């Protein structure tokens, strides 16, 4: 018997064999084997993989990475702890409520966030009121920050949660450093070009829970589990479950294409600041989360399955000035911008 998981796995395998061509125009999200970068004995060998990564980020802005070195057991533990956290009573989670875009830490209840490409505060507020994102999140930053503190549940409420998430935060940062080194080589920069610009770990680990929803709610004008948006920083590392729902916009046609889950991979996409850094040589692509296939519960109603994901939003150091890299074309498309000012500004507009 074919279960949903089996069907999705078979679909993923077929897509892999076809190079993930998802439309007649050959829009692709390629699968990159990162073990080949790590095993390389020289810069020239590393550049073989690095050039593939940079080419993909130029064309689609997204890749799947396999053989990334993060154990399956580690990811499974994070998903287990995340699911347990979101099952806590509402009053326990609300004690950890997100408060400030400069901190970007804490629990975000369903409906508080509205991701969008809009920049006008009144327009975003209107969108949020009419069609809030149907998800709840938990935001975690570096734990040694002297000014902004993480919002941790009591150990008695969530045993092992804090230690699991802190270990995973460090694991993701370390992998992010390797990915940025590959991008540096792929852009013909020194491999360590970005090292001192990302070493302060000004990142955001986001746990996401998309609860089951009646499809009648999702039929409202403009409604989605997470609206179309680009990310803010350098790279986003996304760990998906097998439910599906992530869609990526084909930048050439405007159509949204499913980013079908592939077991054991990380979906990685370019953020706005890396796109600005590269003068848009690397593409920050719009993406969204929509309802996956539904389960019918009556003649007129159906329910979407619950969905889990974990995103690691990697950022430059907050004191880094982002300006056009020396070998990414002239003239520069964007003025220099401070990382912290840019990210805090985007966050302030996103939340109520």
Q: How would you describe the overall organization of this protein?
A:
The protein has 352 residues and is of the alpha+beta class. It has one domain: B-lactam Antibiotic, Isopenicillin N Synthase, Chain (Jelly Rolls, Sandwich), CATH 2.60.120.330. It is 34% helix and 19% strand. The chain contains eleven helices and 17 strands. The strands form four sheets. Strands 1-2-11-8-15-5-4-3 form an eight-stranded mixed beta sheet. A four-stranded antiparallel beta sheet has the order 7-12-9-10, with no helix packed on it. Strands 6-14-13 form a three-stranded antiparallel beta sheet. Strand 13 and strand 14 form a beta hairpin. Helix 3 crosses helix 7 and helix 4 packs across helix 7. The longest helix has 26 residues. The radius of gyration is 20 Å and the shape is globular. The N terminus is likely disordered.
Structural class: alpha+beta
The CATH architecture assignment turns out to be Sandwich
Count, helices:
11
Largest sheet: 8 strands, mixed
Helix content: 25-40%
Organism: Dendrothele bispora (strain CBS 962.96)
Family: Belongs to the iron/ascorbate-dependent oxidoreductase family.
GO molecular function: metal ion binding; oxidoreductase activity
Keywords: Iron, Metal-binding, Oxidoreductase
